[in-house]
Amino acid sequence: MPNKNEVGRIGQRRYGGIIYEEFLHELRGHKGIETYKEMSDNDDTIGAILFAVEMLIRHAKWDVLAKGNTEKDDEAKAFVLSCMNDMQETWIDTISEILSFLTYGWSAHEIVYKRRNGKRKDPRTNSKFSDGLIGWQKLPIRSQDSLYQWKYDSYDNLISMIQRPAPDFEEIEIPIQKLLIFRTKSNKNNPEGRSILRNAYRDWYFKKRMQEIEGIGIERDLAGFPVLTAPEGMDIWNINDEEMQKAYANAVSYVKGIRRDSYEGIVLPSGWKLELLSPGGGSSKVTDTDKIIQRYDSRIAMTVLADFILLGHQNVGSFALSSDKTSLFANAIGAYLDIICEVFNSKAIPDLIDINGNAFDGITDYPELTHGDIEETDLTVLGGFISQAVSCGAITPDETLEGYLREKANIPPMSVMLENDSLTQPPKPNVTDDEDIKIAESAKKALGRVD
């Protein structure tokens, strides 16, 4: 008889609640979080990529889909939609916080509920609805830099997140049942996922230092290379003489502090000599740092399929190439939206329905969060496809197709247009009432137009 119990282990590198799957020390734990924060906040290319991602996702439309045709299914759908728009923070702000999982690889959010008892002065209990049901108060982030450790059971099941958050840094344990954890990918069921900037780290590292060297080089080209010579007979290299060591330290400080600014100038004791040497002549090889930095920018953008943002800045690329690369990027963003929907559909929404007891008994299945497209449809391409498909008989035009095309073109539905058209028509006189008939006949007689 086969053994039904779990025997093996995942093999996750975890010691004392801290995960060591990342082999680079500078990208592990809190140090890694600080590095990714610097990358996202300080680098212009990475900042542009993350900005494009957030703006595209903010543009997407969110909806809830009922999983059945019963009245209870429609009620459950409407309830989830109302909860999304009845939180302490707006839905878009909540999504913006969730998107931090792209930068850090993961994002944890605590589920906080409230009783919907109408308007209240306390923002924590205030609600647009007074149906007495339990809804979401908020889904606040539990920041990545507040993580202390993860707690597991003996079967590698995640039990809780332990954090030490600012400002008091007290230890808080949050059960996994109260958490929504978003992550870019799953490897050994690692709750910390993998940052989308991970593959860009090496290029960012060299680009950063190349920019620093470039800045120093430009400054030295303008100011000259400073050379400070000690008086004859003064041995500042004597490590056994304390006075000489002080003189050496002061000399190094003077040389490093030379700048071309309003404080330019230096006062030296007798015997000291300062020279500013010019850069090497034409025979020396000068490195084009601009090309090197552009190369690193291209590789950084390429790691997240966002190299289309460099088209035009480097005088390369065509419209067709840009369109293809943008489509690839849009598909990647769509996958991130799917991740968000999956977490809500697997935990947040079922928990929300279940916590309200028998209020939604009889539903076919839990409602599901869905997202719309992040790109505007190319109407020229769509129109050409529809025209060819109709002409060859592959598609038969009907009301459903018309509704779809109107939606894509942002044209009001036909029912709305007919309703608006009827409002512009002058109202027909109602002559069915006896009194109105008498008034109409009197008017005709007065005008000598009796039929």
Provide an overview of this structure.
By secondary structure, this protein is of the alpha+beta class. It has 13 helices and 14 strands. Helix 6 runs antiparallel to helix 8. The longest helix is centred in the last third of the chain and has 36 residues. It is extended and about 120 Å long.
Briefly summarize what is shown.
Helices cover 43% and strands 13% of the residues.
Question: What's the SSE blueprint?
Answer:
Layout: E1 14-15, E2 18-19, H1 29-42, H2 44-59, E3 62-65, H3 71-84, H4 91-98, H5 100-104, E4 106-110, E5 112-115, E6 134-138, E7 141-142, E8 147-152, E9 158-163, E10 172-175, E11 179-183, H6 201-223, E12 225-229, H7 242-256, E13 273-277, H8 289-302, H9 319-354, E14 368-371, H10 379-391, H11 399-408, H12 414-424, H13 434-446
Antiparallel strand pairs: 1-2, 3-14, 4-7, 4-11, 5-6, 8-9, 9-10, 12-13
State the helical fraction.
40-55%
Mean pLDDT: 84
Structural Rg: 34 Å
Q: Oligomeric state of the chains?
A: single chain
Strand order of the largest sheet: 7-4-11
Count of discrete alpha- or pi-helical segments spanning 4 or more residues: 13
- Sketch the major β-sheet: 3 strands, antiparallel
| Apparent shape | extended
How far apart the termini lie comes to 101 Å
SSE pattern: EEHHEHHHEEEEEEEEHEHEHHEHHHH
Low-confidence stretches: 315-322
Helix- and strand-based class? alpha+beta
How much strand?
Answer: 5-15%
Strand segment count: 14
